[in-house]
Amino acid sequence: MASTVRQLKQMIRSALLHRFDEPRLELLLQAHVRALWEEHPWSFRQGEAVLMTVAPKTTGTVTLNVDTTRVDGTGTAFTATDVGKQFRGPGTTGTFYRVVAVTGQQLTLEVPWVGAAFTASAYTLFQSVYALATDVDLLLSVTDQWPLRQRSLRQSNVYDARRQYNSGTPWAFTPRGEDASGTLLVEIAPVPSSVTAIRYYFQRKPPALVDSVHLPFPDLLLVYRTASDGLMVLAGEKPDASSALLAIAQGYELKAAREFQDFQYKDFQKIGIQEAVHDESEDMLWDDSVAWSHDIGGLLW
Q1: Is 80 within 8 Å of 99 (Cβ atoms)?
Q2: In whole angstroms, what is the distance from residue 6 CA to residue 11 CA?
Q3: CA dist., res. 133 & res. 177, Å (int)
Q4: pLDDT, tens digit, for every residue of 120-149?
Q5: What is the pLDDT of residues 80-110, one digit of tens each?
Q6: Which three-class secondary structure state does DSSP give residue 86?
Q7: What's the rounded Cα separation, in Å, for the pair 254 and 256?
Q8: Measured between alpha carbons, how far is residue 2 from residues 22, 25, 95, 105 in Å?
Q9: What three-state secondary structure class fits 108?
Q10: Summary count for the chain: helices (H), strands (E)
Q11: Which helix (H) or strand (E) holds 29?
Q12: How far apart are the C-alpha atoms of 154 and 232, rounded to whole Å?
């Protein structure tokens, strides 16, 4: 087990001859952890999770309130979990409105309803945008029965601007940025007509550098890299001792390079050197240039 952040800081302070103040040491360590984390697809960065979609609600009927930002339900099953979903009422436009509050069986819409009034009408309450796991840093692939194709928000709006197509087999996803907490969002299309389990693969975010966290990198790799940079900073600030400080810094840099090479080799043994792998089936007949078309139900080359 690697040392905690607190223990690493103590080791780095000693390597820096106790001449570096705490705030700058913290910044240097954060910078090196981030750089190392993003430098390679380390085994501990790989993750997978399952996104459970939500079935649209259509039970009961709805009536537009005198306040046209509100919709009253009869025989419906609205709950607080419906906040953030999209409401589609009757009419030929098929437009949808975001729900911002639920009070009993009454929905509050983000903006006033602009179509004709309606009474005891059919409706659809659906969700297409979902939050991923909180530690997702980079989304790599999304898979239902087959890999979902990534498309832009512009493409989504061109092909289904009103989000009125439902399907038991979603075939596309669109990254939709982050929510207020920094969690990545993704849109699934077409809107799943039932609960669907969609598996996705990703690279994790680096851990928060609180004192109790164990970092996955070798202690000496972080100590040598951080101390080397710190000594070079000190050499610029202390001209009278710069030669000695630079000599120690260069020694640390060489040791860090050896630690990194050894660590990289051991980690590649766990996951394989991905850049050199060409995905192939067991019979060695198909490689990763084969694609499945959901439109024609066959293979594309």
Answers
A1: no
A2: 9
A3: 13
A4: 999 999 999 999 999 999 999 999 888 999
A5: 999 999 999 987 566 899 999 999 999 999 9
A6: strand
A7: 5
A8: 21, 19, 54, 53
A9: strand
A10: 5, 17
A11: helix 22-39
A12: 48
